[in-house]
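W.,

You were right to be curious about this one. When I first looked at the sequence I had no strong expectations either way, so I just let the prediction run and decided to look at it fresh. Below is the sequence, 171 residues in total, followed by the output.
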Amino acid sequence: MRHITLKLSAVLALAAILVLAYHVYKEQSRPFQEMPKTVANFAGFNTEGEKAEYYFERGAVTLIVLSASWCPACIAEMPILKRLHKDYSPKGFKILMISEDDNVKAAARFKKMQAMSWTVIHWNYDLMNALGNPRVLPVSYLVDGNDDVVNISAGIIDEKKMRSNIERILK
């Protein structure tokens, strides 16, 4: 009888551990802790080492892009970002990149190597909290002139869909 009780206790303990592990995995595998509906001001240091804020970009249609030099998908997305910037910046469109590189120097090297003409800010925890703490790269937030998030794209941007959204907002 005691042998059966020990086996039953072990099975119940294992089941409890598996349920706990599943819940931890499920929580960690969500790409966002919270999907933001609007973008509040956030600040960080740009690649020149100066303080930069989101409010410097507001009032325009802005694509906030979380990226990093070590991220293959981020590098693959770069030609799309350059085309979007070239085509829509004359109409008031802006790109604001948040670098998740280890330090500002690495972000500055990446900006120079990719010939980015937009602002690049180095990440910090307050900034990431303002953007819902995504756990994926790249991720892009299309924001209208009222700071409302119109579209969130996790992974490489679908250029056709993004162009459609930008054109709709710019009108």
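Here's what jumped out at me. The chain has a mean pLDDT of 86. And, maybe more interesting for your project: The first helix runs from residue 2 to 29.

Coffee later to discuss?

I.
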